[in-house]
Input
Amino acid sequence: MNQKTTRISPEEIARQKDFCAQIHAMNAALPAQPLAYVDTYGCQQNEADSERLRGYLSEMGYGFTGDENAADVIILNTCAIREHAEQRVFGNLGALVHAKRNHPGQIICVCGCMAQEKHVSERIKQSFRHVDLVFGPHALWRFPELLWRIHTRRGRIFDTPDEAGSIAEGIPVRREGKVKAWVSIMYGCNNFCSYCIVPYVRGRERSRQPEDILSEVRALAAEGYKDITLLGQNVNSYGKDLGREGVDFAWLLEQVNAVPGDFLIRFMTSHPKDASERLFDVMAKCEKVAPHLHLPFQAGNDRVLKAMNRGYTREHYLGLIAALRQRIPDIVLTSDIIVGFPGETTEEFEDTLKVLEAVRFDALFTFIYSPREGTPAAKMPDPMSKEEKAANFQRLVDLQNAISAEKQAAYVGKTMRCLVDVLSDDPRHNLNARTAGGRLVHFSGDESLLGQYVDLKITDSSTWALFGELA
Ligand code: SAH
Ligand code: SF4
Ligand code: F3S
Output
């Protein structure tokens, strides 16, 4: 594999926009505007990629729909992180046979992390013959050219080069709303945690130049975006590949904080091995940085952490949390945990429960280990039964639910400044807001409040949500 980061030239992106213009001309000649449906799976990085696909599609003259039967172009932007995620994609992809039968000119595309896995693209080649175009994350910047070729030539295209990855600036972005925005600051991952597929499908760690990031943030702030999340698999190693004196994640946060505007800065994900006290100092002093840290610890036992290749111990992790709380006592803490890593005993799993009790996280994302083809962990002996893993998982969820409920209840009676971000799906309230720390609050109010900051008095709580009223 080529290990070097390629920077895609502005001329290349201009060439892609020429393909957009050619498709636009073709679409403009149709009796009705053609529609595209982009279905996104997985993490925020994929959400951000889908916004770029929509940006391109929009320049090509497509409108958007959420109905696969109405769509002229369907894109499944997929996730490979766990088997369950992959099964969902295969299930939905299989069902698209019917959509295409009713709509013969329909173009079906599969992209994202699954597309980059060899065994997946092989399977699509053999068994999902209604799929026209398969491209991996490395080929996303040249999507217009690929779609043009599908429109103008016969045959299917599989563009999934195995490369370290590139950085492309200047791809148009079509964001979902006017309140929250994702900004990728880096791509790929170098950590090779032994269970994880991401480094294989997303390539090596590569950072965008700070000037590009800052001009994007400035534009978002000027447009009135209120909640900006900086994205990367391991944001704490931002800048290491740039070789520019003084450019690291803590520095970048300070620069973003200095951008004028009334907005909050979030970031994810942080890796404990690279989180530093300097970062915590910067978080504490930057008024726009949200008082929230998502710091995945995965497992509480040092032998298991070593087998996972995580690069830190439980003691180091707990030390980070203590150092952070010293500076920001009311910080909201969330984390990711894997239960049932190959060889993890129930006794070792109980060390994870001890970390939960010691830290008392506000919320957790919990997963049962899922073997990923090609990763070292998939070859490790895994003697524990499914039932035992499920029982441990349940103990973890029960403990965390009790902790979450207590922490949420402590908000009742307080008045908090919250950003009203979306319409609520809660039956009793029409609006959702977020506290600065990222806690969800349901409340009732006029829809014109969307995108505004409001003071909410918290009146009730559950394990997952807070309930409030306008103060
Ligand atoms: N880069 C982030 C995580 C990205 S993946 C980090 O290192 O923190 C999000 C989460 O999915 C991980 O934190 C992990 O908890 C979970 N995960 C990753 N691979 C998994 C696997 N093979 N089985 C189960 N969970 C997994
Ligand atoms: Fe996967 Fe580890 Fe990289 Fe996170 S840091 S994406 S868990 S390899
Ligand atoms: Fe999934 Fe790829 Fe994100 S595997 S979690 S979509 S980086």
